[in-house]
């Protein structure tokens, strides 16, 4: 089997293959070096062929002889073969040249390819470095963009997002960038950026605190208005339901029955308080582990703001707005306590509240030092009460303010008392002390609803004629009217005060007693001293009696009123003071009557040594009795007081007559003068019977018994103790002795023996009476 012929590659074939090679394909990311393989392989094959040809040539040369021999043997065949061989040789030489040329071309082309390969590898290395640099720069740009974005977020108020971004940078996974100085510098700048966030969020909270201060008054105003609305609703409901009248606003019953209307003073149609800056600041500081720093700063800022609320001195006209600002301040604090967990300490808020409440009360007290109008105290109380009720709903302790209201109340009551004292004094001194008349200006129903009296007297007055004058004068009516006004103003102050009921009741009792005793009683007593008309004095006595009744009725009505408000029993002690003034009035009445009796006795012209006895009473007694009965019977007072006036007058008359008989002004008299005195006494007793007061004749018992001992010559009988105690107990020994001495003097001065003997006997009787009773006074 002949050997397999190798494939022959012509120069055209090789050139064609080389033209098809593209070392750098623009559409490919790698070089086309693999296409050179087959070509180089072909070239190598051609070189082997050339070696082979040389070997063949040497064989040919060695075989030439043999061939020549063979050719000679086979000349024709040989010639043909030689011809063929020469053709092959020619072709082989041509092939050799082509191979040599191709080898040079391939060598030239390979060098170019190596240079291109070297350049290509350098380009790839440069491109990789550039890619790495680009990636690094891009990573840096991303980080720088985050940092720049942090600044924008700080300016936009997105503090938490900014802080999170910084945390993201700090917690980036390790990369080639992590080891760069740039990244290390960036990490070192993160605390500064956190500080910027902290400063920015702090500034935001400071601005928020300023805004809160500016709107605190509005918050407080809305809260106070809401409380006033709630108070009105509860008052209306309490008036409709008698069972609710004992329950104040804020009581358990009120809280249960209160139809609550949801109204948030911090978030409503008129106002919205955004706590986001505070919450955001707390969140940021908590994340930065600096919450305690924020707590101290916040407490200091709020304390500074609370110190700026109250000016010095405190203007009372601005008190409502100031209390509203304080209310708003602590309503905000209450909301912060409820919504921020442990950020705000309840103790810190209580300290702020206690300090501000103390400064408020001190400022008010200082501003009220020169206040003389009770209405000023009332306005302060109204502002404080609305303030107290508002903050009680937010669980603030108002005990100190409640106690301060009681302190203000005591001062208010003193001023109110002083104000009404002036009114009462004017009423008493301007009154003419005549019975009050019912007219169109003062209808009887209005009058009876104003004064305090017993039910019996009220029914009696209602049944009498309209034109009938009332028992009292305008003093009693106007004083009752003003006492009602005083009570109204008194309770206007304590309305809504939930504590110290007994203190209020005691203060009311003391105030009313002071008004009634001093302002009314003493004023009437002063007016009484200058009153000369017994009729006016009688009217004063009637007024005083009605004041006594009014004290009891007033105490009962006030007790009933306070019982509906959980108060105690109110007792007035002014009744005893009026009793004393009544006694003064009676004494004044007796004094005026005695003054008139003195005038009448000045007209008396007794003859103390008459020669005969009179048959009719003295003329001055007619005028005296006529005046006395006219005056006393016309007095509009109780019959007991009339009897007392008569008794006082008769006692005075008896004393005057006894003074005539036994006093030192008349040195001597006879029995006829004594008989004339007894005739006057008989006349007076008859007049007493005529006016129906015969029981008052007992005023003359001593006079009659004393004179009966003398005229009946019963001195010896009187000297007997048993008789003296049984029949003459009212006779005073010294007076009897003085009368006997006067009779003795008269007898001693007479010329007839019988008269002288009688005078001597009277002297001895006087001595006997004096010896028996040496130590007794007249």
Write up this protein:
The chain has 778 residues and is an all-alpha fold. It has five domains: 30-67, no CATH class; 86-156; 205-396, no CATH class; 410-587, Exocyst complex subunit Sec15 C-terminal domain, N-terminal subdomain (Tetracycline Repressor, domain 2), CATH 1.10.357; 604-772, no CATH class. Helix content is 74%, strand content 0%. It has 26 helices and no strands. α2 packs antiparallel against α3 (75-156), α11 runs antiparallel to α12 and α19 packs antiparallel against α20. One of its GO terms (cellular component) is membrane. It comes from Hypholoma sublateritium (strain FD-334 SS-4). This is Exocyst complex component SEC15.
What are the main properties of this structure?
778 residues, mainly alpha, 5 domains, 26 helices
Please summarize what this structure is.
The protein has helices at residues 11-20, 36-73, 75-156, 159-170, 181-240, 252-257, 276-287, 291-309, 319-339, 346-367, 374-392, 399-430, 444-450, 455-463, 474-494, 501-529, 534-563, 574-602, 619-634, 639-662, 671-690, 701-711, 715-719, 721-727, 733-748, 753-772. The chain is mainly α.
Strand content: under 5%
Whole-number count of domains = 5
Integer average pLDDT? 80
Helicity, in percent? over 70%
């Amino acid at each position: 089997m002949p050997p397999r012929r190798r494939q022959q590659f012509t120069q055209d074939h090789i050139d064609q293959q080389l033209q098809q090679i593209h070392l750098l394909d623009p559409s490919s990311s790698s070089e086309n070096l693999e296409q050179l393989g087959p070509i180089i392989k072909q070239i190598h094959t051609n070189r082997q062929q050339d070696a082979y040809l040389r070997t063949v040539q040497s064989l040919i040369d060695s075989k030439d002889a043999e061939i020549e021999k063979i050719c000679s043997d086979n000349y024709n065949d040989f010639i043909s073969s030689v011809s063929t061989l020469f053709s092959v040789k020619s072709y082989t030489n041509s092939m050799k040249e082509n191979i040599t040329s191709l080898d040079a071309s391939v060598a030239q082309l390979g060098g170019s390819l190596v240079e291109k390969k070297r350049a290509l590898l350098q380009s790839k290395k440069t491109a990789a470095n550039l890619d790495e640099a680009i990636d690094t720069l891009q990573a840096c740009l991303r980080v720088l963009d985050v940092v720049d974005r942090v600044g924008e977020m700080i300016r936009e108020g997105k503090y938490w997002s900014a802080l999170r971004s910084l945390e993201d940078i700090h917690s980036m996974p390790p990369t080639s960038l992590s080891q760069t100085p740039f990244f290390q510098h960036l990490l070192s700048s993160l605390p500064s950026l956190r500080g910027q966030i902290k400063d920015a969020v702090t500034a935001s909270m400071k601005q928020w605190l300023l805004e809160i201060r500016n709107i605190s008054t509005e918050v407080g105003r809305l809260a106070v208005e809401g409380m006033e609305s709630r108070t009105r609703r509860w008052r209306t409901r309490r008036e409709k339901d008698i069972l609710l009248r004992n329950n104040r606003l804020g009581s358990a019953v009120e809280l249960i029955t209160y139809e609550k209307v949801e109204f948030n003073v911090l978030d409503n149609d008129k106002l919205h308080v955004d706590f986001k800056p505070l919450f955001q600041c707390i969140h940021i500081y908590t994340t930065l582990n600096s919450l305690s720093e924020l707590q101290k700063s916040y407490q200091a800022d709020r304390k500074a703001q609370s110190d700026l609320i109250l000016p010095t001195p405190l203007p009372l006209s601005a008190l409502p707005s100031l209390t509203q600002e304080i209310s708003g301040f602590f309503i905000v604090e209450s909301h912060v306590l409820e919504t921020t967990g442990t950020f705000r300490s309840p103790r810190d808020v209580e300290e702020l509240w206690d300090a501000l409440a103390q400064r408020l009360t001190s400022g008010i007290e200082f501003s009220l030092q020169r206040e003389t109008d009770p209405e000023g105290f009332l306005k302060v109380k109204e502002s404080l009460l609305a303030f107290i009720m508002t903050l009680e709903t937010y669980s603030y302790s108002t005990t100190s303010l409640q106690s301060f209201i009681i302190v203000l109340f005591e001062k208010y009551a003193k001023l109110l008392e002083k104000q009404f004292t002036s009114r009462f004094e004017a009423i008493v001194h301007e009154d003419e002390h005549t019975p009050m008349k019912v007219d169109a200006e003062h209808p009887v129903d209005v009058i009876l609803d104003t004064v305090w009296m017993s039910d019996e007297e009220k029914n009696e007055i209602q049944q009498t004629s309209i034109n009938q004058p009332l028992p009292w004068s305008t003093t009693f009516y106007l004083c009752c009217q003003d006492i009602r006004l005083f009570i109204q103003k008194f309770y206007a102050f304590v309305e809504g005060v939930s504590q110290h009921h007994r203190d209020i009741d005691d203060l009311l009792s003391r105030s009313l007693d002071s008004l009634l005793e001093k302002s009314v009683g003493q004023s009437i007593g002063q007016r009484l001293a200058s009153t000369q008309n017994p009729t006016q004095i009688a009217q004063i006595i009637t007024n005083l009696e009605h004041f006594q009744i009014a004290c009891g009725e007033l105490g009962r009505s006030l007790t009933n009123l306070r019982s509906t408000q959980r108060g105690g029993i109110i007792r007035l002690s002014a009744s005893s003071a009026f009793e004393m003034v009544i006694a003064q009035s009676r004494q004044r009445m007796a004094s005026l009557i005695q003054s008139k009796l003195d005038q009448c006795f000045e007209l008396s012209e007794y003859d103390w040594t008459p020669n005969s006895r009179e048959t009719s009473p003295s003329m001055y007694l007619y005028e005296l009795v006529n005046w006395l009965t006219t005056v006393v019977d016309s007095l509009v007072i109780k019959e007991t007081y009339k009897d007392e006036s008569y008794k006082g007058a008769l006692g005075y008359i008896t004393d005057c007559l006894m003074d005539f008989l036994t006093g030192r002004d008349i040195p001597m008299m006879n029995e006829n003068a004594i008989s004339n005195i007894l005739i006057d006494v008989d006349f007076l007793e008859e007049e007493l019977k005529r006016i129906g007061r015969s029981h008052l004749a007992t005023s003359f018992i001593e006079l009659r018994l004393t004179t009966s001992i003398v005229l009946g010559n019963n001195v010896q009988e009187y000297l007997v103790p048993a008789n003296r105690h049984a029949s003459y107990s009212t006779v005073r020994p010294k007076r009897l002795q003085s009368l006997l001495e006067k009779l003795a003097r008269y007898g001693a001065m007479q010329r007839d023996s019988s008269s002288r003997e009688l005078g001597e006997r009277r002297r001895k009787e006087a001595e006997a009476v004096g010896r028996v009773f040496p130590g007794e006074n007249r």
